[in-house]
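Open question from group meeting: does this chain pack into something compact, or does most of it stay loose? Before anyone orders reagents, we agreed to write out a predicted structure and look at it together. Recording both the input and the output here so the notebook holds the full record.
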Amino acid sequence: MDFSLPPEIDALRLRIRDFVATHIRPLEADRDNYDDHENLREDVLRRTRAKAKAAGLWALHMPTARGGQGVPLIGLAACYEEMNRSIFGPVSFNAAAPDDGNMIVLARVATEAQKERWLQPIIDGTVRSSFVMTEPMPGAGSDPSAMQTTATRRGDVWVVNGRKWFITGAGVARHFILIARTSDDARRGLTAFLFDADQPGWRIARRIPIMGPEEHGGHCEIVFEGLEISDSQRLMEVGEGLKLTQIRLGTARLTHCMRWTGMAKRALEECLPYVRTRQSFAATLADHEGVQWMLGEAALQIEIGRLLTMRAAARLDAGDFARKEVSMAKVVVSEGLHKAIDTAIQLLGARGYSRDTPLEWMYRYARQARLVDGASEVHKMVLAKTLLAEDMDFWAWDKTP
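Structure tokens returned:
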């Protein structure tokens, strides 16, 4: 087992670290750089993205032939960590959700014509995208089989009716991937489609207010009222919508873990200088055993999550779906993120609770981590079912190629 990074990946990681420190982290301190939803203002973002492109740090996860860097998932894990040493990092490199997950799945399953029409503009950064699946009760959430939104075929056109909500990025997205019910078949009842923001027959009912800072475009409730989609805009075969969802969400969940690991490390980074120098009861905070326990536990959880993320990335790079490995990473990293931020706030005291540091922003953001792309409880169910099916092989070692 080799836990070292290939030299070219480590060099790329260090370039990203330097770019974040030089061009992105300084933006956090000036509230004039924030938009009304506490993300990076669009004009500032455009300038920062142009710098990332010029530096050759753009869309690491995409093929070089399409303007990306062709980095494998194990490389992305190391690089995404560095990106999220700033709260504005991932979006500056075109590596933020939901775009990165949408790009990855389109690169894998779209036809060449679809890639040129729908994928390339997302890679170029000229449009944003959204993944449209989650529905209000009694519709689909973690259980896609409960899908209520329908797509009915009429010749070469599909007519979509229904309602979706908490659709990330929909407020500014131009390209959408939609999952809708096309039959009552238990396994092949869902189909995936592409549609454009300019097509009539759909509308945003509201941008849903949330606890934390929002991604660009927010989290929206969408109503479909006879949206017509050409069959040429269908992704994969009829009835393969669930398969597409599994392909997309496995990798997307893991890229969340990569970014969250970087944010968790940043949280501790915020408090360490204070802990080393703050005098309390004739000693620095760092000299107190109780503080050492808090820091040690947070660091331990970050490292466990990081190793699980790398393990899942290696399995995905090898062509495996890695459902078990992704679920383990998703649970541990999402919970470790909250612990790291909470620890940093506690150790910084009132300053950590203030807006003098990004920790309160991060704290509100982090609460969603245990919900998005499957709640922790759902992933634990996946693990339990896998254990029951595999028995002691749940812990089997990989076979040597």
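Observations to bring back to the group:
Residues 129-237 form a domain with the Butyryl-CoA Dehydrogenase, subunit A; domain 2 fold (CATH 2.40.110.10).
Residues 241-277 form the longest helix (37 residues).
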